[in-house]
Specification:
Oligomer: single chain
Largest sheet: 8 strands, parallel, barrel
Shape: globular
Number of strands: 10
Length: about 240
């Protein structure tokens, strides 16, 4: 019997292969090159942004893919797969697991994240949903609404949690989600920038850990080193 995506990634690393506008890697071929490297390095799955790029990765990589789209709320903060049309596009390319914004902020039709997830599950039979959340309360509400799993992706990237982004990964919030949702796969994502931090997520009870910037953002990694070297030079 074929394993589910959750069985395949349990206790493993997922690599987020994304590239921003202006990056030389910002193409289906570019992000797929990251995905190919992730496969070689032992990743269990890929997280991908954009319908065209996600489809390209699905067709070229023999790993399960978590797909999403990105836009923005009126306040400028990121929104993950914020409309039914985007969900339909990801379903059409056979995305195994679709990540959506599960925060309490309102989006299409005035729906909060949990309300949006409930509507998706009612509209599209068989679709698997990952709820990207920023608080424990959102995680619980999304699970009750039918989310197949939750991820701490947005802790630090909403107006209410922005302070978190100044620190390392939100391990304590992760632990609270795991405790609040027994039997629910809880994924760790957000500022897990070292192998030690990634391991700490699994030790805290995460189903799997998603790492992006520290693996697939060469300009950010370069900046970390450049800033450290400059700081040492002026001492």
């Amino acid at each position: 019997m074929e394993q589910s995506i959750f069985e395949q990634v349990h206790g493993r690393l997922i690599v987020s292969c994304q590239a921003e506008e202006g990056s030389p890697f910002n193409s289906p071929e570019g992000v797929c090159a990251f995905a190919e490297c992730a496969v070689t390095g032992g990743a269990a799955a890929i997280r991908s942004c954009g319908v065209e790029k996600t489809e390209y990765i699905i067709n070229h990589i023999q790993l399960p893919v978590i797909g999403l789209t990105k836009s923005h709320f009126d306040d400028g903060f990121v929104r993950i797969t914020g409309s039914f049309a985007e969900v339909e596009q990801l379903i059409a390319i056979h995305t195994p697991l679709i990540a959506v914004d599960g925060t309490f902020r309102q989006r299409e039709g005035g729906l909060t994240g949990p309300e949006y997830i409930r509507a998706i599950k009612q509209r599209y039979a068989g679709v698997s949903i990952m709820a990207d959340i920023s608080t424990v309360e959102e995680a619980v509400a999304c699970r009750e609404a039918g989310a197949d799993c939750v991820s701490t992706t947005l802790c630090g990237y909403t107006p209410q949690t922005a302070e978190e982004s100044k620190h390392g990964p939100s391990v304590e919030m992760l632990k609270r989600c795991v405790e609040a949702l027994p039997g629910c796969p809880v994924f760790a994502e957000g500022r897990y920038n070292t192998p030690v931090e990634a391991a700490s997520a699994i030790e805290a009870g995460a189903w799997a850990v998603v790492v992006g910037s520290a693996i697939t953002r060469p300009h950010i990694i370069t900046q970390w080193f450049a800033d450290a070297v400059r700081g040492a030079a002026v001492k």
